[in-house]
Amino acid sequence: MDEVIYAIGDVHGRDDLLRDLHEHIRDYHLLMHSGRDAELIHVGDYIDGGAHSREVIDRLMSGLDGFQMTCLLGNHEAMLLECLATDNRQTWYTWLSNGGEETLASFGMSLRFGGYDPDELHASVGEDRVAWLKSLPLYKAVEPYLFVHAGIAPGVPIDQQQSKDMLWIRSRFLDSEEEHGYVVVHGHTPGDEPVVKANRICIDTGATSNGLLTAAVLDGNAAPVFLRAAGRPGKSG
After folding, report:
1. Residues 188-215 pLDDT 10s
2. Do 61 and 131 form a contact (C-beta atoms < 8 A)?
3. Which of 121, 135, 162, 213 would be a feasible disulfide site paired with 17, CB 3.0-4.6 Å?
4. Strands 68-71, 38-42: parallel, antiparallel or unpaired by DSSP?
């Protein structure tokens, strides 16, 4: 792996932390790895919970000068996409009860009279953002790492993994000590600090609950270095 990878955990509408972390990464790369190619890989969950989901999406769509950027699909983006396709009350309730109300507010949309209107949601989010959300891949492999939102089902080849596992899996993956063929870099399960194990690295440090957004600096087989942006816990920071 010739490039330096900066893998960034779950943002959840905290554009203040994302802005600060991007600046920190830019400064760090200039100081420590000047002249080397660099890629940002965001592992999903850009929306919901925090107050600025629209701003987060727009920042990611704009990219960061000097860096290649890959944004993966998270389960929260998947829930929004499901609501764009249906007015089913349970589908919408699942999303709204998991932070979707804050995302609607960031797009200026209110649920008047309790109506769940996918067309109104599409219009509020905007065609370009919807197209971007639909384009997000489930995973990216860069030896020796596999980047994915939640994790993978142990013992299942990558090309046979189910999307629901890559977006939602927890204990079956987190408790596994199995060699996956890659070191899996993931988010989805927040903690106070990054988790580094032989077979996985978790970089979700609770942007809303802890006010911490973390990036892992990955340079080949070297031990990961962690950068972070810190703010006040809560919805906006």
Report:
1. 999 999 999 999 999 999 999 999 999 9
2. no
3. 213
4. parallel
Separation between Cα atoms, residue 25 and residue 2, nearest integer Å: 18
| Amino acid making up residue 131 | A
| Alpha-helical runs (H) found in 49-147 | 53-62, 75-83, 89-95, 101-106, 118-125, 127-135
Strands 145-148 and 183-186 come out as: parallel
Tokens of 198: 């032989």
- The one-letter amino acid code at 79 reads M
Tell me the C-alpha distance between 154 and 165, whole Å. Answer: 10
For the chain, what is the radius of gyration of the CA atoms?
17
Q: Which own/partner contact pairs does 84-87 have at CB distance under 8 Å and 24+ positions apart?
A: 84/118, 84/121, 84/122, 84/125, 84/130, 85/118, 86/118, 87/115, 87/116, 87/117, 87/118
